[in-house]
Amino acid sequence: MEIVLSGIRPTGKLHLGNYFGAVKNFVKMQETHNCFFFIADYHSLTTHPKPNDLHGIVKQVLAEYLAAGLDPEKATLYIQSDLPEIAELYLILNMNAYLGELERVTTFKEKARKQPENVNAGLLTYPTLMAADIIIHKANKVPVGKDQEQNLEMTRTFARRFNRMYKEDFFPIPQAYNFGEQLVKIPGLDGSGKMGKSEGESNAIFLADDPKVIRKKVMRAVTDSGPTKPNQEKPEPIQNLFSLLKVVSKPDVVDHFDAAYNNCSIRYGDLKKQLAEDIISFTEPLRDKILSLSGDEVAISKAARIGADKARESARKTIREVREIIGFRPF
Ligand code: TYM
After folding, report:
1. N or C: which end of the chain has fewer CB within 10 A?
2. pLDDT at 196
3. CB 7 within 8 A of CB 84
4. What is the CATH number of the domain that holds 258?
5. pTM to 2 decimals?
6. Are residues 116 and 225 both part of a single domain?
7. 145 lines ligand 1 (CB under 6 A)
8. CA–CA dist 149, 157 (Å, integer)
C-alpha cells in the first residue's frame, strides 16, 4: 500500500480553512492509504518558542486533529520529537546538502527577509529536516500546498543523491500530492483573502470557538451597502459569505439567499444570522470533542504513545539500514 506522509506545523488552533483544506482530506485518506501524520515540533524550534507554550500548543493540536477525525488506529499520528531517528537522518542528510542550494530556497529567502535578526542554521536546513521527515518512513506521496512544492523537490534531490552515493533504489522518490480540485477554498471574514491568512483572530472561525464568539465574528464580517441592480455580480466580501454558507448550510438555504441577492431584497443581517447558526451547528460536535479531549490527559497520552510506538518501529528500521549502508557498523 502506498505510504502517505504529512507534517502539521504546531502554529495554532484549527480553523474552518484548515478543516476544509487539509484535515478533511487527511481523514479520508487514512481509510485508503498507509498514512503518517506528525506534529512538526522540531521544525518549530526555529522560532524559539517558550517551553510551556510549545508543550501546550502541541497538546492542543493533537487534541484538535483527533477531534477532527484522525484515528490513531487507522493512521500513524505522532509527535516528531518522539522520533530521535529523524534527527539522526537529518544530520546525515546535511553532510550532502550544500549551502548554495539551501540558500536558494524561496521559503528560506522569505523568512530571512522577514526575520533578519534570526537567520539560524535550522531555518537554512529546514529542507533537509523535511526530507528526513519524509524518507525516514520511505513515503511515496506527500500532500503539499503550492508553497511547499520546492521543499518537496529538495527532498527528491536529497533522496536521489543518497541513492546515487550509496545504494540505488534505497529511498523511494516521493511525489507531491496536491488536493487541488477537492480543496474547498475557505475565505476569511475580513472581506478578502483566505481564512487565517491575515493577522488577528476575528478573520477566522476556529473549531473550538464558542457559539457566542462565532455569532460576534460573523455579525462583524465585512459587507457592502447591498445590490442595486438585479442579478448583479457579487463583490468579494459578499461572495465570501456565500462561499461559507455553501459549506455549512443546506442547499435550499443557499438558494434562498442567492435569490434574495438577485432580486435585491437581501438583508445582510438575516444572511449573517443564518450563517452564524449554521456554522455553530457544524462546529459544535467538533468543539465538544476538542473540549473533552484537551482535558483528558489519559486519552491524549495514550494517542501520543500509540503513534510514537508505530512511527518508531518504521523509523528504527530505516535508520538501522542507513547506518549499515553508510558504514556505521557495529564492532
Ligand atoms: P503547511 O503548514 O503549509 O501545510 C500543512 C499540511 O497541509 C497539507 N496541505 C495540502 N495538501 C494538499 N494540497 C494542498 N493544496 C494543501 N495545502 C496544505 C500539506 O500536507 C501540509 O503538509 N513545511 C510544512 C510542514 C512539514 C511537512 C513535513 C509537510 C514539515 N515537514 C514533511 C510534509 C512533509 C508546512 O509548512 O506545511
Report:
1. C
2. 83
3. no
4. 1.10.240.10
5. 0.92
6. no
7. yes
8. 12
